[in-house]
Amino acid sequence: xxxxxxxxxxxxxxxxxxxxxxxxxxxxxxxxxxxxxxxxxxxxxxxxxxxxxxxxxxxxxxxxxxxxxxxxxxxxxxxxxxxxxxxxxxxxxxxxxxxxxxxxxxxxxxxxxxxxxxxxxxxxxxxxxxxxxxxxxxxxxxxxxxxxxxxxxxxxxxxxxxxxxxxxxxxxxxxxxxxxxxxxxxxxxxxxxxxxxxxxxxxxxxxxxxxxxxxxxxxxxxxxxxxxxxxxxxxxxxxxxxxxxxxxxxxxxxxxxxxxxxxxxxxxxxxxxxxxxxxxxxxxxxxxxxxxxxxxxxxxxxxxxxxxxxxxxxxxxxxxxxxxxxxxxxxxxxxxxxxxxxxxxxxxxxxxxxxxxxxxxxxxxxxxxxxxxxxxxxxxxxxxxxxxx
Length: 389
What we know:
Layout: H1 17-68, E1 74-75, H2 100-103, H3 111-115, H4 133-136, E2 154-157, E3 160-165, E4 171-174, E5 193-194, E6 216-220, E7 236-238, H5 268-281, H6 291-294, E8 295-296, E9 312-313, E10 325-327, E11 339-340, E12 350-355, E13 360-364, H7 369-376
C-alpha cells in the first residue's frame, strides 16, 4: 500500500471537494448578479436604437412639412400636394391608401425604395402581382424597433402569396385622441386619411397651436402575434361582431363616424362603454372558422398602407394598457374602420414617442389618460408639463 506524499508537512496538493463547491457557488452568484446587468445594458442599447429610429421619423416629417408647407397625409386617389405629377387609384377608408411612411422615405435616406413604388395603383395592390414586391417587401430598419419581435408570415400581393416575409413596422403616425382617422371626421392629430373628394392636406406647423414640442407625431407599438387563435393584447379585437345595436355603427351611434369620435368631446361614458365592450368581446375572438376576422393579429405587418393597424394609431390610452386594441368593423374585414391602437413596447415602464418638433421622449405607462389626449391633440389649448408623462 502506497503512502500519500506530503510536502514539508503541508496538506496535499489540490482542492478539496468543499473548496470546489464554494468556488462554484461564488461563480454562480456572480453570474446571477451580472446577468441582469448585461440584459439591462442590452435593453438600454436597443432602446437607444429605437429612440434613434423615431428621431429619424420625427425629423423626416418635420423636413417634409418645411419643404411642402403641410404634413403628409395618407391618400388613395389624388395627391398633387404630396407627389407632383403622380396619382393613385381608389383609396377611401384607408384600404388602398399610401402611408405617411412612404411619403417621408426620401427624407430619411429611403429614396431608392420610394422611387421604385408605382403610385398609379393603390397601396393595397402595390406589389402588382409580385412585380413590385421588392419595394413594399423591403424591411426598413428605421421602421423596426430592435426590442420587438419580427412579423411572421409572407407577403401577399392580391391573392398571390410571395416568398417574401412581411417587412414589419413598429411605428405609427398619430391621428390624435380619436377612433376615426378620416379627414371628414377632423381627427385632432397631425395625420389623417384622405379619401376621394376630401381635397388636399393643409395641416402644417401653423395649425399645431399647442406647440410641436407638445404634440405626438409617431409612437411605437408591439407587432401582433400573427396567431388569430391566440388571445393577446398585441392583437386587435373586432367588437361589432359581438355588439348589439342597429345600423353600421352598432351600439356606438355617431361616435365612430364624426367629429364626436374625439376625446374628450365623445364623453367618458361612451369611451368607457367602448373599452368594456372590447374587453368583453376578446375571449370569443379566437374561436370559429372566421376568427381571422374577429382577432386581427397582423398589427404592424407592413409600412405601405395608410390605415389603422398598419401605419396609423391614436393616443386614447397610456402605453401598454390593460385593454385590447379594438376595431369597429361591421363585417370583420381589414383595419379600414374606426378603432383604437395604443402605444405599446417591450421597454419596461412605457414607450417612446416622437414629437412634431423632432424630439423623442419616453412616455410612462403611468401617464394619466387625459394627458395622453392632450399629447395627441394639436390644437386643444391644454398646458402640459414634462413631469406629467
